[in-house]
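On to my pick:
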Amino acid sequence: MRSSPSIVPTDRLDRDIYLVIEDFGARAGCAWRETDEQDTDRDTIIRDLLSGQYTYPVRIVVFNAIEGYARDATSEIADELAEAVAGNAQTTPALQAFVEANATWPFALQLALPLPGAA
């Protein structure tokens, strides 16, 4: 028996896909943002968060259907955002709150250089 080739290209599915749940306020509540397939990679999600495409992000989940996993990526994305926005006055208050609530360590603290006693 001959098998037919898949009509769904597997290369589109065999990657990490990032989705953002956003808080739309008391009346609308939280919902997963509708996102084009090509805009669900890590770099695009970070770029969209930095540019204000997501007003009040709550949680970020990454999954890979081919490899069969899903996990919470909120803290790792918050850490990456914290590095990107360190010292940037253009950050929205909502993004700042997201980073402060979810980053695993405080990037906002800048050490004075050179460090005393450092070789």
